[in-house]
Amino acid sequence: MAYAAALAALPELTPAHLSRLLDIDGGGLPSKAWHKVLTGRLEHRAELSADRVETWRRAAQSQDPREHLARCRSLGLRVLVRGLPGYPPRLARDPAPPAVLFARGDLDVIDQSRPTAVLVGTRRCSGYGRQMAQVLGRHLAERGVVVVSGMAAGIDAAAQSGALGRDGAVAGVAATGLDVIYPTSSAKLWERLGSEGVLVSEKPPGHGAVPTSFIHRNRIMAGLADVVVVVESHIKGGSLVTVDEAVKRGRTVMAVPGPVTSAASAGANALIADGCPPARDAVDVQVALGLVRAGRRRAGELVEVAPPRPRRRGGGRPPRHRAPFDTSPLSSGSDAVSCGAGASVRAELSELERELLDQVDATPTRMDVLMARTGLAPGELALGLDALDQAGLVEAGPGWWARIAG
Amino acid sequence: MLAIIHSAALDGIDGKPVRVEVHVSSGLPAFNVVGQPDAACREARDRVRAALLSSGFAWPLQRITVNLAPGSVRKVGAGFDLPIAVGLLVATGVVAADCLGDCSFIGELGLDGSLRGVPGMISMVDRAPTRAVLVPTAAGAEAALAGKRVQTATSLRGLVAALRGEEPWPAPPPPLTEGRRLPEPDLVDVRGQLYGRWAVEVAAAGGHHLLMVGPPGAGKTMLAQRLPGLLPDLSDQEAMDTTRVWSAASMLGEEVSLIRRPPFRTPHHSASVPSLIGGGTYRIRPGEISLAHNGVLLLDEMAEFPRPVLDGLRQPLEDGWVTVSRARWVSRFPARFLLVGATNPCPCGYGLTRDSCRCSPSSRIRYAQRMSGPLLDRFDLRVAMPKTDVADLMGIPCGDSTAVVARRVVKARRLAKDRGVNCNARIPVGALDEVAPLTPGAALLLTRRLDAGRLNPRGLHRVRRVARTVADLDGHSGPVRQEDVAAALALRPDEESLRVAS
After folding, report:
1. Looking at domain A302-406, which of 3.30.565.10, 3.30.70.1530, 1.10.10.10, 3.50.70.10 is its CATH number?
2. Is B396 in Cβ contact with A124 (below 8 Å)?
3. Are residues B138 and B280 in the same domain?
4. From-to residues of CATH 1.10.10.10 in chain A
5. For A185, which residue in chain B has the nearest alpha carbon?
6. Domain range spanning residue B441?
7. What is the CATH number of the domain that holds B243?
8. Which of B346, B348, B350, B347 is nearest to B218 (CA)?
9. CATH 3.40.50.450 residue ranges in chain A?
10. What letter would DSSP give residue A301?
11. So what's the pLDDT on residue A314?
């Protein structure tokens, strides 16, 4: 393991290089490969430039593999080598598996037997994309689907924060070394994933964020997936790299349909136009995973989307409705408020609040438009909107309000 | 032969009494000025000599020493020309010492013997150690504002003639306490942005600092320009304080009168720290925040201001004055102003709704970080103003005019005055329970927001003050109601929701 960690830390090393070193020079054994690097007598040096062999040799001579292992241990990381026990079988079968994998947390999460959904999407997401990622992450986790995402900001972070804390399985694939938190704003999420789920990376500790490492990460995500769901993607987005990798591996790709006017959904909508099945809610994903029979959704039934923050006014008991088409045996005590519950929440509103709710559009409605439409004084308007917000029926943005679907 | 003439110096915006001692004795002809004079002050030697000769007086070929006492005060500017010249005339016997009476002299001399005004006339006249003050005619109206007896003269010759009693004194100018009122932009011009208009009304009524965030063309600047028009006239004391600052900065212009309307200052975002806060190399000068004393300071494109400039505002915003310290001098300037900030949400300007923004997340975060948290915290009102649709511009009726809104503002301010504060933004924390008690519903709303961690204790006080203003605008002087608090909370959204970058 010490040698594996040291090999992975060689300078200017691509995943392909590492794979070749391990297979050809080591015959599967990192220690053997390390000694070949030390002497510079690599079996496949014909494929490499002399400079590169020399760089590696110098680097290897100046380093002690045991220090690499000690560093990983002190960071709480496990080092896994392809072909040796402990390596996730799901990746072992992959056409381009990482030769060495660093992991923190419970590796059983990415066990072969569990259905796995990879949620991907843009870092520059819209409120809609964030909401969808959170809801999908939460519902899939609740129904026993492993939720995998890429540790980036935006959709990735929203999916994982939705999935965490639901007694489900969550995994994250990082593009940097596991001690290099990127983006730094996600520090808490990294910590939670390491303790409540699993965090993996093929990059050694200390490896920073470089553009190529994200592309390498996308390949691992595709390798872990049973199904890839594109929540929101611009027309040219990194998520589409993951899609390509998934298609190469024959995995199902789904996309969440978005407003056709939204640039952030252009990539996802294009995928649907190309024939990808749409992922409207967790049930669609479950159907694609073969967990639920298709055709159970009645015509005209609304898509299951719960408000991101189901809060109730006062101390009343929150309504716990079982979603009408929730057939997953693993689901228990879901706090999702389905469309039916939305109606009952509405019944509890005052006359004024109901009228106000009718004036709020599903798209952002500006405050001054609400003032003009309702004719209410700013104080009454603010009070009414606060009540609707407490009931989880509307969401606030800077200077606007929008009705939450459901 | 010694002559002692009373005068005054300007230190910051305050006047300081100064004795000009002129000593003429036999010896090698020389002319020295001592007592911490600056460059302009030392140049008085040349101006005084030329002015005396042009006015037909003889120049004494003797040893002349001028002392500006007390020596501890720095003397800045050309205002001592006149007292030095008068001192010389007295010392050489052209004018008898008892002709001067109880009078101080302030003014600059032209080479032809004419008299010219100097900056800070009001403060200097006010602190002059005599009952009457003689100033150049051009500065007569300004000097008269200080409330002392003012005599004027246009030239050194005329002055000497009047002092000797050969000619009558020209009539002293009346103080102009009411200036010509310039037209102010009217709120009627603003179409749409009902919420922004209301926020401006609350800001005017309570003196709350206002931050407007919105894309280009949303009407932020337009609304901000109409805020001063909503404020009531300055009281006598306020008008005097503000005029004094403007006088010291020599910003009063040609037609000098007391500043009755709240000043409105809009420094460009290239402003330096000294220009905004006060300072300077040769002469310490009040900054924009002091020129906006008792008025409105608009920082348009606020995020474009350098961060040290913005952070320099924090202390004056709390205290209402600023102390400018340099190696050689320290000055304290009044700076109680209503701060209005206008900024785009992100570099491209369209970030209020995510879809239309073209900025990268990191550039948005960098942009948001231009304004520090503590500065943002000082804005009681933070309003996000998305752009109005063109269709709405036609459909939405015009709102109230400035005159109508200003009447509501005056009423609300009167309620605040009855409680003993100038405006609600200045209610001390200790008095909140007394002047802005909460109904049970209002208290519940606040408790819930506190429990949710969406309000900090400092924010709590600010929300309560704004709620008081909202109630006052509604003509409600009893305990603060639930809807007032809800409106105040809506006017102070979390920093995070304002920084859509997150």
Report:
1. 1.10.10.10
2. no
3. no
4. 302-406
5. B502
6. 187-498
7. 3.40.50.300
8. B350
9. 107-288
10. P
11. 41
- The CA–CA distances, whole Å, from B470 to A65, A382, B181, B385, B400 equal 69, 12, 30, 19, 17
Tell me if B170 is assigned to some domain: no
Chain B CB contacts of A378 below 8 Å? 195, 198, 470, 487, 490
Band of the pLDDT at A406, cuts 50, 70, 90? low
- Residues B321 and B398: their CA atoms lie apart, in Å, by 39
Q: Check which CATH number belongs to the domain holding B71 and give it.
A: 3.30.230.10
Specify the number of domains making up chain B: 2
Task: Give A220 or B500, the one with higher predicted confidence.
Answer: A220
Distance CA B475, CA B454 (A): 29
Residue B397's pLDDT is 67
CB contact under 8 A, A399 and B383: yes
Residues B326, B460: Cα–Cα separation, whole Å: 37
Q: Does domain A107-288 match CATH 3.40.50.450? A: yes
Q: What is the DSSP string of A57-126?
A: HHHHHT--HHHHHHHHHHTT-EEEETTSTTS-HHHHTSSS--SEEEEEE-GGGG-TTS-EEEEEE-SS--
Asked if B490 and A400 come within 8 Å (Cβ–Cβ), the reply is: no
Cross-chain residue pair B355–A263, CB shorter than 8 Å: yes
Give B345's contacts in chain A (Cβ within 8 Å).
398
Nearest residue, CB atoms, B497 vs list A377, A380, A398? A398
More confident residue, B336 or B373: B336
Q: Give yes or no: residues B236 and B340 share one domain.
A: yes
Asked if A398 and B384 come within 8 Å (Cβ–Cβ), the reply is yes
Q: Which helix (H) or strand (E) holds A198?
A: strand A198-201
CA–CA distances in Å: residue B443 to residues B436, B437, B439, B448, B484:
11, 9, 6, 9, 11
Residue of A nearest to B383 (CA): A399
At A321 the pLDDT is 39
Domain boundary among B149, B164, B179: B164
The reply to whether residue A368 touches residue B194, judged by beta carbons under 8 angstroms, is yes
The answer to whether the Cβ–Cβ distance between A368 and B388 falls below 8 Å is: yes
Looking only at the bridges linking them, the beta strands covering B264-265 and B296-300 are parallel
User: From B365, which residue of chain A is nearest by alpha-carbon distance?
Assistant: A185
Average pLDDT, rounded, for chain A? 83
Contact B483 A153 (CB under 8 A): no
Give the nearest chain B residue to A152 (CA atoms): B361
- Mean pLDDT of all residues in chain B? 88
- Is residue B292 domain-shared with residue B409, that is, in the same domain? yes
pLDDT digits (tens, 9 = 90+) for A313-365: 444 333 333 333 333 333 333 333 333 445 566 677 888 888 888 888 887 88
Taking CB atoms and an 8 Å limit, are A396 and B493 in contact across chains?
yes
Compute CA distances A355 → A239, A278, A374, A385, whole Å.
41, 34, 8, 11
- Residue B497 has a pLDDT of 59
Q: Full-prediction pTM beyond 0.80? A: no
- Whether residue B171 is contained in a domain is answered as no
For residues B331 and B239, membership in a common domain is answered with yes
Do both B392 and B493 map to the same domain? yes
Q: What is the pLDDT of residues B161-199, one digit of tens each?
A: 999 999 888 888 877 777 777 888 898 888 888 889 999
- Quick one: pLDDT at residue A296? 60
Q: Are residues B211 and B71 in the same domain?
A: no
Residues of chain B with Cβ-Cβ distance to A126 below 8 Å are: 354-355
Q: Hey, is the C-beta of B381 within 8 angstroms of any chain A C-beta?
A: no
Whether residue B49 is contained in a domain is answered as yes
> Is B385 in Cβ contact with A380 (below 8 Å)?
no
Indicate whether B172 belongs to any domain: no
Instruction: Say yes or no: B252 and B221 in one domain.
Output: yes
Per-residue pLDDT band at B354 (split at 50, 70, 90) = low
Interface-testing mutation among A124, A184, A388, with chain B (most B C-beta atoms within 10 A): A124
Are B192 and B160 in a shared domain?
no
Residue of A nearest to B359 (CA): A124
